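Researcher: Re-running this chain for the archive, since the previous output was lost when a drive failed. Same request as before.
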Amino acid sequence: MYPIIIFLFSLIIILFLTAKLRIHPFLGLILTSVITGVLAGEAAGTIDAITSGMGRVFSHFAIIIAAGSIIGLVLHRTGGARLIASDIISISRKPLFGLNILGFIFSVPLMCCILAYVIFIPVAKEIRIKKELPKVLTASVLVFGTLASYNLVYPSPVVYSAVSELGINNSDILIPGIIMALIVSFVGYFYARKFCSTGNMDIIINENGTGIENEGIILPGRIAAYSPIAVPVALILAEVFTNIALFDIMGEPDMALLIGVVMAIVFAYRQYSFGHVREWVEKAIKRSGVVILDMCGGGALGATLAMTGVGQEMGTLLSGLPLPAILVPFLIAVAIQSVQGSRVVTMLVAPSIVIPLVPVLGLPPEIVLFSMASGTFLISHFNDPFFWIYKDLAELETSEVLRSYTLGGVVMGITSLALTGVVYLLFY
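Model: Regenerated structure tokens:
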């Protein structure tokens, strides 16, 4: 069967299973992965592809998600996240815009848009509760900020490898990338305000049903509230920007977030009993397990889709069509991103297809880079690990994720491509 048909059929299956039948995403993704592998004629290698795809995602994200979940829940129960949210609200007259900027600023230094989202989603939840906003609104303004800078700003992992492959000077793309990313982030923010302002506004109720879960508690000091977030961020930044051996260990995201977990537990234990803190940690680990399973399912689907060769086939097809030159790198990146779900992988694979075409396209390498990077915004769906992290940590329905994360990414990607075209017309 043709790879493109298999790809489209797999999307229909997963959409039917998760959105229509409301089967758990993990089970739906695994079943779809099996069907995809069989249709690709690779039945013997399907299970190996599924387990390797799951294992790759688990090894990269299990500790990050579990640690982030513990920090978030402990800060929520102790009131630390509420204190941070109150500070953002008092400093900024537009706390939603503040969330967007927060995600934008930290995504590249942390070298992971998912990590930035995991760290700051507890703050987004507290702002939602205090301002009585829909879940999808606060989560989407944060996620759009993380995506804008991560996809476009050097030295993000998305951009970094392609810069060297295309022979581009760092200085030639740093400032243009920041400017374009800021505009794209603002577009994402306004998209969220316009199209994600309706949805579930349920607040968290305490066990007695009397109100917000941490209503009436004594808020912790700012050191206790900020340290479990600020210290991991500082350690990760130190690992990125220094050559100190100590930070090579402590600045690894897994280790840095585990340090944050220890700090959150220690500060909580000063105010609450060990039994309460242990209960919060256990609940956070159980919740993170669901998130990790969904992500692993996405990794399995991405691995089985890669077996079909659909990414290469779509790239070859697009490169042979009579399209405007600037669209070719963009659409090739879109095809690869849609198939396997990882933005970093997209920018590792796309240049191998695009670079031989550069003399024919006649485009400057900087424009080729930004055209491909624009394509990493779309189309993000069920095989994207961030899709499920965004959904589960914000407690959203699949339809809400498609409306916000997927469609919002399309809008941001098209905006980024349009800006790339403007740069090309004005400066080349």
